[in-house]
Amino acid sequence: MSSQTVFEGVGVALITLFDESGGLDAAGTADHAARLVELGVKAVVVAGSTGEAAALSLRERAELIRSVRARMAPGGPKLIAGTGAPSSRQAAEYTRSAVDEGADGVLTLSPPGAEDPRPYYETVSRAAAGLPLLAYHWPAMALPGIPVPVLADLPIAGCKDSSGDADRLLETLTSWEGSLYVGSSALLAYAGPLGCTGAILALANADPQGCAAAFAGDFEAQLKLAADHRRSVAGFPRGIKHLTAERFGTPITSRLG
After folding, report:
1. Burial class (CB in 10 A: 0-12, 13-18, 19+), 141
2. Pairwise CA distance, residues 153 & 130, whole Å
3. Cα 143 from Cα 79, distance rounded (Å)
4. By residue range, what is the domain housing residue 167?
5. How far is it, in rounded angstroms, from Cα 55 to Cα 201?
6. Is the peptide bond before 74 cis (omega within 30 degrees of 0)?
7. Which is it for the CA torsion 226, 215, 145, 254, positive or negative?
8. 91: burial class by Cβ within 10 Å (0-12, 13-18, 19+)?
9. 185 near 163, Cβ under 8 Å?
10. pLDDT tens-digit profile of 200-221?
11. Mind listing the pLDDT tens digit for each residue in 39-78?
């Protein structure tokens, strides 16, 4: 499956909007996704880590996918659902729901504490029923992550790497032929020109155009992103929610943090 490219360019790891009481605002989240599509994002990841997936029920995840799907034109940017979970049973359940609700692909964080992630991804792949599966390497959230040599053994269409590790990114690009998506907005002007397929970014909620320019190799754009990159990862997810609110007037309520 590694020869399949899900999308190219900059995608957004979509925030999930909540009302003041913490209730899900699926319609508002879909409106925000549609606005970002108009500004050029090539994919929208719903109910991922930036979307506070750990605080969402299965029903809420499904509602988000349906709401965002309804705002995206056929043949337009891809809708990718976050389906990572501590156990393969949970991840498979989230994945089957994403398939049923019309996602174009799934992004699945590696399981914490798993020395060998292959059985986990094999289970998720079966649940995906042919839908493209992106593995997700983020050791800060789920140690130990995915060793580079294991990527070739996984039934995946690509991998998102949010480690922020330039050495790891270079090793992956030079030893694995799959589609690689950078998850750190600090490495865009490095990752794009070196051949990453795309990027999946929290910061694209607030500055999709700047992220796209940096990924295209604009070093000035990368430098301009530096302060907002630091803000976006501070007190996660509060930092990115406040940045997005300053740009677009979206709510800042979070369930996490």
Report:
1. middle
2. 17
3. 27
4. 10-248
5. 20
6. no
7. positive
8. buried
9. no
10. 999 999 999 999 999 999 999 9
11. 999 999 999 999 999 999 999 999 999 999 999 988 999 9
Answering whether pTM is above 0.85, one says: yes
The H-or-E segment that residue 15 falls in is none
pLDDT for residue 101 = 98
Please answer whether residues 181 and 197 qualify as being in contact, where contact means their C-beta atoms are separated by less than 8 angstroms: yes
User: Could you tell me which residues come within 8 angstroms of residue 13 by beta carbon, excluding any fewer than 6 positions away?
Assistant: 45, 48, 49, 50, 51, 183, 200, 201, 202, 204, 205
Those residues whose C-beta lies under 8 Å from the C-beta of residue 34, and which sit 6 or more positions away, are 71, 72
Q: How many structural domains does the chain have?
A: 1
Helix 26-38 with 238-248: angle, nearest 10 deg: 70
Decide: helix, strand or coil at residue 47. coil
Instruction: Output the DSSP codes for 81-115.
Output: EE---SSHHHHHHHHHHHHHTT-SEEEEEPPTT-S
In a domain, 254, yes or no: no
- In the numeric block, the tokens 């740009």 are attached to 247
Per-residue pLDDT of 13-40, as tens digits, reads: 999 999 999 999 999 999 999 999 999 9
Kindly state whether residue 5 falls inside one of the protein's structural domains. no
The reply to whether 2 falls in a domain is: no
67 part of a folded domain: yes
Give residue 232's identity as a one-letter amino acid code: S
| CATH number of the domain bearing residue 186 | 3.20.20.70
Tell whether the model's pLDDT for residue 1 goes beyond 50: no
At which residue do the structure tokens 């925000």 appear?
A: 32
